[in-house]
Each structure stands twice: as C-alpha cells, then as structure tokens.
Amino acid sequence: MPMLSIPRRILKRFHPEGIPWPMSRVYNALSSMEIFQHHYELCARDVAAIQRTGRLLDVGTGPGWLLGHLAREAPGLELVGLDVSPAMVKQAGKNLGGQARMELGNAEDLPFEDGFFDVVVSTGSMHHWKDPVKGLDEIHRVLAPGGRALVYDLVTHTPREILKQAAGRFGRMRVILLWLHSFEEPFYSPADMAELAEKSAFRQGEASFVGVMCRLVMEKEA
C-alpha cells in the first residue's frame, strides 16, 4: 500500500467504510449539488465512451447518482450498484427508481461470480476501503477477460490548473471547500492510485483527470 503520512494513516484506520443513517441523508443532499452532479455526469460520459452495452458494476455507489447518469448516457448497460451501507443502498434505490439493481456488500468481498461484469466503476469510494489492493483484486476477479475498471476519486495534489478551471465554473469558495475536504478524508495522490493498481492483480493502471476527479483505468487481460 502507498506510504500515507502518519495523520492520514490514523485517519484511514478510524474512518468509516460506509455512511450510516442519518448521515446518508446528509450525504445524499450534499451530493445532489451542481458541482457533484456535474462530475457524476462527466464520469458517466467517460464510462459510456468505453462501454455502452453489457453488465456494469458500481462499487460504493452511495446515493446512486452515477448510475442514474449512466442510465441516460448508455441505456444498453445492465446496471448493478453495491454499497456497504444499508442506508445508502436504500437511498440509492429511492433515487434510481428501478434503473439499477442494488446489492449490499463491500469492495473487499464482492458477492458476484468470477468474470460476471464487462466493466466495473467506482466514484469517490476507494479512499474509504480498508484494503484497497484487495478491493482492486476483487474487481479484477469479477471482470470478464478484456474488461476494464474505471476508478474515480478526489485526490491530494490535484493540479492547480484543474482547480482553477473548476473555480471558474463553480466559484472559488466551493472549490476551496472541496480542497479542504481532502484534509479530513484519507485521500490518495494520483501516484498512490497508480501504485495501488501495480500492487493488485491488474499489475498496472493509468491515472489521469476527469474534471477534478482522478481516474484510474485498469484492464484485465483477455
């Protein structure tokens, strides 16, 4: 695992993997804000450019917003969402209204058969996982040969020009609040994310940015 600073290691140890009730309602409301919805839409378009049919799993789906955008961007996809929090699974079911199947479970022990999905995605979830390499190994396991995984997350060391672009669209104060958020969450850096991929069954991954989200792309050998 990447060498996190001591404060971040302590934070990760005690940081909850799932969002319990009643915080699930707070998170649902916050994530419905424009800055979050814009990035869910960007990520959905990014996924749809790679995969428009077959089965898709969203690990750590939270309120299910990404799946909602995917249902519009790629209606040919069969959508499945998974979250470790029963409260979030229930909330996502309400938000999606039958557009996706919801399952309860965590990233380190996915309740699916080997090779079941054509693409696996995750947005804003990996920094919560207690064992991210094991989580990536599980994603590799449930992917079909030749399938791809796209993991999006906020990170430390976001390039200044990307933050500047976001400030121009959403306002400087909202971006500052987003940046301050990185000090209370155990986020990785882009280099950390690539290192996690290298330590996993994928053996390699490419990190880049989609808006302010760092995107880690990995592929399972055909």
Report on this structure.
The chain has helices at residues 6-14, 23-30, 34-48, 65-73, 86-96, 132-142, 160-170, 172-181, 190-199, and strands at 54-59, 77-83, 101-104, 117-123, 143-153, 206-210, 213-219. Strand 4, helix 6 (132-142) and strand 5 (143-153) form a beta-alpha-beta unit. The chain is 42% helix and 21% strand. By secondary structure, the protein is α/β, with parallel strands linked by helices. It has a 7-stranded mixed beta sheet, with helices on both faces. It has one domain (6-105, 113-219): Vaccinia Virus protein VP39 (Rossmann fold). The mean pLDDT is 88.
Strand order of the largest sheet: 3-2-1-4-5-7-6
Instruction: Please tally the β strands and state the result.
Output: 7
- Strand content bin: 15-25%
The total number of structural domains is 1
The level of helicity is 40-55%
Q: Mean pLDDT across all residues, rounded?
A: 88
CATH topology: Rossmann fold
> What best-fitting shape do the alpha-carbon axes yield?
globular
CATH superfamily: Vaccinia Virus protein VP39
Count of separate DSSP helical elements: 9
C-alpha-based Rg, rounded: 16 Å
Q: Tell me the CATH architecture.
A: 3-Layer(aba) Sandwich
Measured distance between first and last alpha carbons: 26 Å
What structural class do helix, strand and pairing data support? alpha/beta
Q: Kindly provide the name of the CATH class.
A: Alpha Beta
